[in-house]
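Homework help board

Subject: predicted structure for assignment chain

Our instructor gave us this sequence and asked us to write out the predicted structure in token form, then describe one feature. I got the tokens but I'm not sure how to describe them. Can anyone check?
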Amino acid sequence: MSQRAALMFKRLRNDFQLSIITLMGIIGVLGISPYAVYRLLHGNLLVGIADAVIVLSTLSAVVYAWRTGDTEKPGLYLAGVFSVGSTLIAINLGVNGLFWIYPLILFNFFMVSPGKAIAATLLVLAGLVGHALWVPGSVFESHYQMISFLVTNAMAGVLTFIFAYRTRIQREQLQLLAIQDPLTGARNRRAMNEELKIAVSSKRRHGRSYGALAMDLDHFKQINDLYGHQAGDQVLIDYVKLIKACSRQEDRLFRFGGEEFLLLLPDTDAEGLESAAENLLATVRDNLRGPGGPVTMSIGGALLRDDEPWSHWLQRADQCLYQAKSSGRDRTIIDRPTVNLTPSH
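My token output:
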């Protein structure tokens, strides 16, 4: 039980949106359930049913998010349910129901993107104002009260928007820093390990094929020793730009060592992997330049096998890379099902 709880807390720490949905779900259930029971017992069926629907919807959305890992759909669903429910409650209860609109604003900005939260808030306010003008006295006691309510909602909405927008941008930047190599812009080793694990899982469940190319710049240490680390850094930056320009959009490039990189290629067979390696080899040879002239690289490749751990897959590609460097560099060697090593220049 303690191990399961530890895994749940770890998942909450690693998934911000899931933690928000879970927290909002707990607050929503604990905060609204007493009102639902009270109103149903005292005959206020419409509002009581609306409260009950919100509670049940919250529970189902939280369960769905935990089971599927999808937090976007539950967030949109809850934002819609809470917006409609709060509007109906405010229309039915009048001034006493308007207090629910303020936490709704906060809730929506945490559940969905700032743009969608603004749209939901405007729709709620438009519904309340429209009903108030259609049935005078049903929601607001006077026009002055309605204007005051709209002004305070606008202030709350603007402040919440600024906070939510800045929080989202900072979170995205932190997530990017956690998986990106700061020098080259390629993904880092942490991201590589996670992507390789996902690839293994995808092959096991859906039979999807994956190839990996381990790449290493030839004689890179000489560039650093002769021309300095700044010159070496520029070569790495130019190298990553070249590889990304020659790769497919779905391919993933990782830097897992000083001048060592890995390219993950989904939906690739042996011929495709070798063709991609040869193309990259020629592109780097013809276009990458350092202070001392052309820079080449060596490549080792391997296809993911059935029921193979990602570490073994990476090791096979790395062994092929070692063979390519030992055979004279500026060549590619692919680990194929049959022995068919094809060095090239």
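Reply (TA_rk): Your tokens look well-formed. For the description, you could write something like this. The longest strand covers residues 210-217. That's the kind of observation they're looking for.
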